[in-house]
Amino acid sequence: MYQDLSQPRDENSALATIADESTEEANGETYGPLKALCEMRARAAIDAGRLTILRPTYICGRGDHTDRFSYWPIRASKGGEMLLPGSPDDRIQNY
Fold this sequence. Notes:
This protein is an all-alpha fold. The protein has helices at 31-45, 71-77.
């Protein structure tokens, strides 16, 4: 979704663009630019005071074959000790 992924980003960072705005195929290459295009079109059509744009890190659910989210709740449901990265004092979000 962002133009430059090599630097830290925030809500003011430049967004990716897509050459063919008519494409309907969402994949690893087109998802970000299409999301940015949707945001642009929503801003043009909806009053800014009534618009909320979300940019989640991960979208999980049906069709997500990465197993990046479902692993943890399934593993936790099995019980027992778990080795997790970081420490209990780590912040989850930086706001």
